[in-house]
Amino acid sequence: MKQSGSEHHTKLTSAKRPLYPEGLPSGPLPPALQPPLLCQLLLEWVLPDALQEPVLGDLQEEFIERQQQSRSSACWWYRGQTVSTCWHFLHQTKGDWLMLVLSMVFFIGISLWAMFVSNPADPWTYYDFVSLVLIFPSALLFAVGATSRRTLQQAVAFLMNPGAAAEPVVYQQIRHFFDVMGQSALLLGFFSTLIGVVAIANAMTAENFAASFGPATAVCLLTLLYGSGLKTLCYVAAQKVSFTARENSRNDSVLG
Question: What whole-number distance in Å separates Cα of residue 139 and Cα of residue 157?
Answer without folding.
Answer: 19
